[in-house]
Design brief:
about 190 residues; mainly beta; four-stranded antiparallel β-sheet
Length: about 190
């Protein structure tokens, strides 16, 4: 079974630079814990004024927080693939002028994490603040035997901001033509997003 690193990036995208007002503390979004009870109902996010010419919408919308902000179309596909650890935090996306341009978006908050990273074979530097987390990856090696066979899209225990997807999920995303994402084969990944 192959796994892929998923990264959100797209050209001239309406860039989102903050969570909705009243959201939980930013650090909680990287923990793999449920936020549904704390997340504001009817939440709104807006294109950043720092990028006034960037207005494109994608299935995976680029954002400063490096989270998975997905369209209704992407959500339906992920739900159909039975990603069991998916928690959806719905938002409306507005443009620079306050007009609704994405009525059915949601942050995909993946619950839990997998011990996917082979800490002996990988090359990395630990984070200076979060001592139990990897801060930078130079070469990623996986311990696939430690990954739950039912895990389709997941965070890594030692680098919770790192999201991996299974090869069948990658194939489904490609077949559906989902936009706004790049994937890299996880084994041997050098930590760069090109």
């Amino acid at each position: 079974m192959k796994y892929f690193v998923i990264k959100v990036m797209a050209e001239e995208a309406g860039f989102i630079d903050s969570y909705p007002r009243g959201s939980p503390a930013e650090w909680k979004f990287d923990e793999g814990i449920s936020l549904a009870k704390e997340f504001p109902a009817g939440g709104e996010v807006s294109f950043s004024d720092n990028y006034p010419d960037d207005r494109n919408l994608y299935d995976f919308q680029p954002n400063l927080m490096s989270d998975l902000l997905v369209s209704g179309r992407a959500r339906k596909l992920i739900e159909s693939l039975e990603v069991a650890n998916a928690e959806w935090l719905p938002v409306v996306v507005k443009d620079h002028k306050g007009n609704v341009v994405g009525p059915d978006y949601a942050f995909l908050n993946l619950q839990g994490a997998e011990d996917a990273i082979d800490m002996e074979r990988s090359q990395y530097e630990m984070d200076s603040l979060e001592k139990d987390q990897i801060g930078q990856i130079d070469e990623l090696a996986l311990n696939t035997s430690a990954i739950n066979p039912n895990a389709k899209m997941f965070r890594c225990t030692k680098e919770r901001r790192l999201i991996l997807i299974r090869e069948d999920i990658h194939a489904a995303f490609e077949q559906a033509g989902l936009t706004g994402l790049r994937v890299y084969e996880a084994e041997g990944w050098n930590g760069l997003e090109l």
